Amino acid sequence: MAREAILLTRQDIAANIDIAAAVPAIEEALGAFEKGEDYLPPKTILEIPVGEPGTAYAACISGYTKTTNLMSMKIGHERTHNHARGLPTTEAWVMVFEPETGELLMICDGTLPTMLRTAAAAAVGAKQLAREDAHTLAVIGAGQLGRQCLRAVTAVRRFETIYLHDAVADFAESVAGDLSEELAVPIEVADAETAACNADVIVTATNSREPIIMSDWVRPGTHLSCMGTDLADKIECEMALLPRCRLFADKVEHALLRGEVSQAVAAGVLDENCYLGSLGQIINGDVTGRSSNDDITLFDGVGIGIQDTTIGKTIYDQAQAKGLGMRLAFS
User: Fold this and answer.
1) 325-330 — which CB contacts under 8 Å span 24+ positions?
2) Could you give the 3-state DSSP secondary structure of residue 95?
3) I need a surface site. Which of 22, 149, 218, 261 has the fewest CB within 10 A?
4) Is residue 206 exposed (0-12), middle (13-18) or buried (19+ Cβ within 10 Å)?
5) Which domains does the chain have, with CATH numbers?
6) Averaged over 310-330, what is the pLDDT?
């Protein structure tokens, strides 16, 4: 008889999973992936022919990791106009499987786990690439991803000042009010230019299709973790900034297609060898990350399936230990 699967809501996950615990798990997973022991099929992204062109997408991301001995599969949707419908613009669901038997172990909300693992990767990027004396953080985007990035990046580095920018200033003010006490660091809501010009570490967490970080705003020595929506037309940084950076990705092949550099490569601003390596290679000591305090470093995180499997393992273990969620046998 197949074992029962665990069903978890977003509320179950939010109440029981600590973002700080996800960061070392994601760091270990990125390093292990570069040793060739995991299985990562290509990500599938579909444009759904409903509504206006470019407003409806679905994606499927899957992966197996030896470290977790689990396989995961995530289905996600993005609908640009859902704000007007009173609905989230993105939704996702994660399934976790026992790889030997194929048994379904867990189905859970995938939106919050995606934010958690993406924020954890941003934090690993900052840990590995920011200057040792970095003391000012700027987060661009105050949605769920930006909120988790604030938590994750401050878990790996101590900051004296945090700037937060969002296109909707009132929303940024609300998030700043919610998190300032939790993080024990004052959060100042600012325009994007002020935030970027004063930052040692910049984290972008938006679905922007227009540059929001200009090259002139970024000082030598800055680190950027660019974590926004991974679609071919997304861009968060002005193209002129990219040749100034030492560029790294979670998976170079994916990032060339859908990452921060994809439009710059298509335009001839960068060539296909623009990435110096992956974050996992830096973790393993195979590639040099920051080489001087004047380097501008950029981690381009498009998201890969092993990150979903890793956060899935963290959530599944907590669910088993704490008796969380519902149990359901499908056969």
Assistant:
1) 325/6, 325/7, 325/8, 325/9, 325/12, 325/106, 325/108, 326/6, 326/7, 327/4, 327/5, 327/6, 327/7, 328/4, 328/5, 328/7, 329/1, 329/2, 329/3, 329/4, 329/5, 330/2, 330/5, 330/104
2) strand
3) 218
4) buried
5) 5-112+306-325 (3.30.1780.10), 114-303 (3.40.50.720)
6) 93
For residue 2, pLDDT over 80 is answered with no
Query: SS in 3 state form for 279-322?
Result: HHHHHCCCCCCCCCCCCEEEEECCCCHHHHHHHHHHHHHHHHHH
Report helix angle 305-322 to 19-33, nearest 10: 140
Looking at residues 110-133, what average pLDDT do you find? Answer: 96
Is 5 in contact with 326 (CB distance < 8 Å)? no
CA 26 to chain centre: 11
CA–CA separation, 232 and 88 (whole Å): 21
pLDDT in tens, 28-77: 999 999 999 899 888 898 999 998 998 999 999 999 999 899 999 999 99
Q: Mean pLDDT of all residues in the chain?
A: 93
Q: How confident is the model at residue 89 (pLDDT cuts 50, 70, 90)?
A: confident
Mean pLDDT across 20-29: 92
CB neighbourhood size of 120 (10 A): 33
Q: Which residues neighbour 253 within 8 Å (Cβ) at sequence distance 6 or greater?
A: none
